Amino acid sequence: MESWKLEMAEFARRITDLRGSRSVRGFAKEARVDRADLTRVEQGELLPSERMAARLDSYCATAGELSRWRRRIHAMRTGLPVPPTDEEVGPTDRREFGLLGAAAAAAQISGRIAAAAAIAPPTLREIKADINEIAVAYTTTPAMVLAERAERRWRSTEQMLDGRVHGRTRTVLDLRAGQYSIYLALTANDLGEQAASDTYLDLAGQHAQEAGDRLLSD
């Protein structure tokens, strides 16, 4: 059997062990994940999305274990560089990291003012390119390093939304801010900061609703 399939079987058993005696329906509802997807994950038929893995980590208080494991399996399946296991990664000193401050800022975001102006298209293209680069680097870059980069861009995008933007420009910026929020949630989860991860997940959902993006909001 291929190595990634063995890993996926172990991953499925781990999820089942974490659920314990609770029903799939009840566990899925409490963890805020799709019941059908959870069933397929436990059966080894489906690798959860990054968002689902982050929510399971948050609910089960597993300090990013499931997200990191999911990332390894995805890399093994697709031929990407395989991230190290938890045993191969040393402890992270989060005192040097600004993630919690960013989470506090995220929790305070509200009431943006929309008016009549737009961001230059190259800026939007640069933001999109940056998110694509973060997506590629996510499996191989230390969480703290990646989050520092995502945090800077996220703050910049939020500042743009606080300014005079409307129409299609605003929709695109909301989508990008939501995507940055997802990666901040994932890296916060990897660093064991569950409260910060939940804050960013909620913020990503708000941006998704504003942008009308159903995939991001799921």
TrEMBL record:
It comes from the Bacteria. Pfam families: HTH_31. This is Helix-turn-helix domain-containing protein. It comes from Candidatus Frankia alpina.
